[in-house]
């Protein structure tokens, strides 16, 4: 079976700095659950005190550091887990309450809960019923 060739993907791979952390070091899921957006980021082996989350205007940045457990006598047979500082950035829309973002780290997973802003939530608009105009009786108005 023939594979599609993407020259730009291949160029990215050729010129990538092997020391640059890849997105795979911080795999992420993003979904909406009711009135919240939820971001889950896998950060196994990360010290919770190394996690830094900040928001600047509409950019949310998550940074974390995984430190190598190797010693001077360590002889690697396989080394697939990246170490170092990793970061992910998300552009946040205007319809979220950035001042109410909550973060929780448990079992190697960082969970961010981003509430939808009150003004962005769908709402019903009540329709009022104006009084009907007075009906004209069938009596004949005499003009005189």
Q: Explain this structure to me?
A:
The protein is mainly β. The chain has one helix spanning 7-15; strands at 28-33, 36-42, 52-56, 59-66, 84-91, 102-106, 109-115. The mean pLDDT is 80. It has a domain at 21-68 and 78-119: Immunoglobulin-like (Sandwich), CATH 2.60.40.
Distinct helical segment count: 1
Structural class: mainly beta
CATH architecture of the domain at 21-68 and 78-119: Sandwich
Q: The biggest beta sheet, please? A: 4 strands, antiparallel
Give a summary of the structure in a few sentences.
This protein has 144 residues and is mainly beta. Helices cover 6% and strands 32% of the residues.
Task: Name a few traits of the molecule.
single chain, mainly beta, Immunoglobulin-like, 1 helix, 6% helix, rod-shaped
Task: Chart the SSEs and their pairings.
Elements: H1 7-15, E1 28-33, E2 36-42, E3 52-56, E4 59-66, E5 84-91, E6 102-106, E7 109-115
Antiparallel strand pairs: 1-2, 2-7, 3-4, 4-5, 6-7
């Amino acid at each position: 079976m023939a594979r599609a060739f993407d020259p730009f993907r291949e160029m990215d791979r050729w010129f990538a700095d092997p020391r640059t952390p890849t997105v795979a070091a911080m795999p992420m899921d993003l979904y909406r659950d009711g009135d919240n957006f939820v971001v889950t980021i896998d950060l196994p082996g990360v010290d919770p005190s190394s996690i830094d989350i900040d928001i600047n205007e509409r950019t949310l940045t998550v940074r974390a550091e995984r430190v190598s457990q190797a010693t001077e006598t360590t002889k690697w047979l396989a080394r697939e887990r990246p170490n170092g500082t990793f970061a992910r950035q998300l552009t946040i829309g205007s319809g979220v309450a950035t001042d109410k973002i909550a973060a929780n780290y448990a079992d190697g997973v960082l969970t961010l809960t981003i509430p939808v802003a009150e003004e962005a939530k769908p709402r019903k608009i009540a329709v009022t019923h104006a009084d009907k105009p007075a009906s004209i009786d069938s009596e004949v108005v005499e003009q005189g």
